[in-house]
Design goal:
Helix 31 runs antiparallel to helix 32 (about 670-685) and helix 32 (about 670-685) runs parallel beside helix 34 (about 705-720). The protein is mostly helical. The chain is about 65% helix and about 5% strand.
Length: about 750
């Protein structure tokens, strides 16, 4: 199978659009004390997953549990602006960071800056027997210094984990020197009483790791984790809420898909399950904003616009800092009012609901989420005015923030404004000249523009600023490879692999370099490693569907059909790649002689992409799959065999064409049509003498067949027998005097 066929099949994956994650951008906070004394604005802080000092695998979940619970609890304190776990997860994905190093004092300040935090809470814990101990420290995101005077410790029996986490939250409030109102403390304490079952809590935390790093291929693990949490504590509201969100996401995705795998139609549909779990969660806790948000989206999917708006408004009122709820409201209003709603009017509606629009970071994040959303729409349907309004407002308070320049750059790309793109690129470079993350992102943008020299220069600057930064080093190896300095790139990749074992990003980049060179044998083991390292490990942040796709294409190119099939089947559930998956599945099934499956897959592909139906090659492919399925049902049907032979000839599958035309000849050895089709097969393969004999047999049996006479003339001409060619042409013109090609051929003879 042609390597070009594999490469051309994925051209649609690279749009060249430079869409940035809003949370992957640095925030140049003013130099301040890590604590909030004398501070009028809420103190922005982020709580990173705690480090497991014992490295026992069975206790790893506790690192996320401390960060999750403390974040949820401290969100209730209005003097604090705690950065939510969703935002942290998004940053880690963009920066290609997993859980390793998150509690490292050297990496904490950079992460804090990227999230706009002034304080980073880092912690560690150890569980020995039934005893649990945890320590926290506060890092100034601007200076990078750990505050020696502000720290906290808790210890006690593991069975008292919820009381211990509540104690730690209260100690953090004290160490941060903020004032928590009695009502806020009461709300915070309720967070730590959501369940009394450590087992239920463990399953919930593990499920949330999958949900925050959502990949459709990992839905089963999410659902299994949350259901296990419910089994351990049937009155625990949060896993019901999480299941409502999982099935709500599933329902929303499936509604956008034109074709669903047949197995998805079995049992209750996703909308029904989402609603059931949401309603159960609300009976246990009527004030869960994430449940109201999930229900709002379900109402919207059903067409119940008023109910959907009511629920999303209530979600914002309960959690005015929640970017997801505010973004959902904006999406609803745009769909409802279209371009008729003015940006200022929309912001007034949000302010009336209590959304934190006075916070420039909220405006910044909303603009970024909006850009990602609008980038998926056709140009004529994009509503960019509201995004620009938010960026302009955020820029007033964050005028030196390079992330705003990067978002303006992306906005200019959406608008197709090349001059503005270059202007904002240079502005982002000016603002982020001392930040390796910004330089790495800009280097990636130059790679997309095929300006490898500039990309390498930028990544060299980034590495000079952060010589030990793994992400920068990986990108440098990748760019070196693209620049043709492959020996240096390979050396650097080897060093990185020796330094960091089982890193999916290193394996993926290396595999993709070989894939780009069409060296699929070398690409395959690295892509296999990348997938292996990522599966079951949601904290890696890898997009599994992309890994599955490229590995599947590797297998297809290497003709390892059985290996490619399960990956392509899994991709049928992916809303981005499912069309491509069905297209390749049809080819694989055809080669495996699973002809009904091939026809079904190609029909699905054409349903997803109706715009390609008029293309001649697409029509030929469909005809092939249709006829291959039909010949299995009617193996002795002469017309089916003839049509199949002709179609295979047109597709240049000559050996298969010969097989089916021979079967037709066995059924009808005196048929002129059979001889004509066999003659044409010989003609296109330049088997001139064989073609002449077959066409002579055809015209002997059908003397008025002008098509066979014309093809006989071509065969004779190729053999140098002009007299025979002229005679054949005259026979064509006798039956069809206006035959254009025959007239032209006569002149040339």
């Amino acid at each position: 199978m042609s390597r070009q066929w594999i490469v051309s099949g994925i051209v649609c994956l690279n749009s060249g659009l430079f869409v940035l994650n809003p949370l992957a951008l640095p925030a140049y906070a003013a130099q301040v004390s890590p604590t909030a004394a004398q501070q009028s604005e809420p103190l922005r802080l982020v709580i990173l997953p705690f480090r497991n000092l014992t490295d026992k695998a069975e206790d790893q979940w506790l690192g996320n549990s401390f960060a999750e619970s403390l974040t949820m609890g401290l969100l209730k304190v209005r003097a604090l602006r705690v950065i939510e776990r969703n935002q942290l997860t998004a940053l880690l994905k963009e920066q290609q960071l997993g859980q390793s190093g998150l509690a490292d004092e050297s990496s904490a300040p950079q992460l804090g800056k990227l999230l706009g935090a002034k304080v980073v809470v880092i912690g560690s814990y150890q569980k020995v027997g039934d005893m649990l101990q945890a320590n926290v420290r506060l890092v100034n995101a601007e200076t990078g210094q750990v505050d020696p005077d502000h720290h906290a410790r808790i210890q006690g029996r593991f069975e008292s984990i919820f009381e211990l986490q509540n104690e730690l939250a209260e100690k953090l409030i004290t160490q941060l020197e903020v004032k928590a109102q009695p009502a806020e403390v009461k709300e915070m304490q309720a967070v730590f009483r959501a369940t009394r079952s450590p087992e239920a809590y463990r399953h919930y935390i593990q499920g949330m790791q999958f949900l925050r790093n959502y990949n459709s291929s990992q839905e089963a693990q999410m659902i299994e984790s949350f259901q296990a949490a419910i089994k351990a504590d049937a009155n625990y509201a949060l896993p019901y809420a999480a299941l409502a969100e999982v099935y709500g996401l599933q329902a929303g995705i499936r509604q956008t898909m034109r074709v669903l795998p047949s197995e998805q139609s079995q049992g209750p549909d996703a909308q029904t399950l989402a609603r059931q779990y949401a309603e159960k969660a609300l009976t246990l806790d009527p004030e869960l904003p994430e449940v109201l948000r999930a229900l709002a989206k379900l109402e919207w999917l059903k067409g119940e616009k008023v109910k959907g708006l009511e629920k999303i408004k209530r979600a914002i009122q309960l959690a005015p800092w929640d970017v997801d709820s505010v973004s959902a409201f904006v999406s609803f209003r745009f769909e409802q009012a279209g371009f008729g709603i003015k940006p200022d009017d929309l912001n007034q509606e949000l302010q009336a609901l209590g959304a934190h629009l006075q916070d420039p970071w909220m405006m910044y994040q909303l603009a970024a989420v909006g850009i990602v959303s609008e980038a998926t729409k056709p140009a004529e349907k994009r509503n960019l005015a509201w995004i620009k309004t938010n960026l302009d407002q955020a820029n007033k308070a964050l005028k030196d923030h390079p992330g705003l320049a990067l978002l303006q750059l992306t906005l200019a790309q959406l608008e197709g404004n090349a001059q503005a793109q270059e202007m904002w690129f240079n502005e982002a470079l000016r603002r982020g000249a001392t930040n390796p993350a910004i330089l790495a992102l800009l280097a990636n943008q130059r790679v997309q523009q095929k300006d490898i020299a500039s990309a390498l220069n930028l990544i060299d600057q980034a590495q000079a600023l952060a010589p030990e930064d793994l992400t920068v080093a990986m990108q440098r190896a990748h760019i070196l490879y693209l620049s043709g300095q492959k020996t240096q790139a390979e050396t650097l990749f080897n060093q990185l692999e020796a330094k960091t074992s089982q890193n999916p990003y290193i394996a993926f980049l290396r595999g993709m370099n070989y894939f780009g060179d069409e060296d699929l044998k070398k690409a395959k083991p690295y892509l296999e490693k990348a997938l292996k390292y990522s599966e079951g490990s949601p904290e890696s942040g890898m997009v599994l569907s992309s890994l599955q796709l490229f590995l599947a294409l590797c297998y297809v190119g290497l003709e390892e059909w059985n290996s490619s099939t399960p990956l392509l089947q899994a991709l049928r559930n992916d809303p981005i790649y499912y069309g491509l998956a069905y297209d390749f599945l049809s080819k694989v099934y055809h080669i495996q002689e699973k002809h009904p499956e091939a026809l079904e897959a190609y029909t699905a592909y054409l349903t997803i992409h109706p715009e390609v139906r008029e293309q001649p090659e697409v029509q030929l492919n469909y005809r092939l799959y249709y006829l291959m399925d039909l010949v299995g049902k009617k193996p002795k049907d002469l017309n089916v065999l003839l049509d199949l032979g002709q179609t295979l000839t047109q597709l240049e599958y000559y050996q298969a064409a010969q097989k089916y035309l021979a079967q037709a000849n066995d059924l009808a050895p005196e048929s002129p049509v059979v001889y004509s089709r066999l003659g044409y097969l010989a003609l296109v393969q330049q088997k001139w003498e064989e073609a002449r004999q077959l066409f002579q047999a055809a015209v002997q049996r059908a003397p008025s067949d002008s098509k066979s006479w014309y093809n006989l003339a071509l065969a004779c001409q190729a053999l140098g027998d002009k007299a025979a060619a002229r005679k054949a042409v005259e026979e064509v013109l006798k039956h069809e005097p206006g035959h254009v090609e025959a007239l032209q051929l006569r002149q040339s003879l």
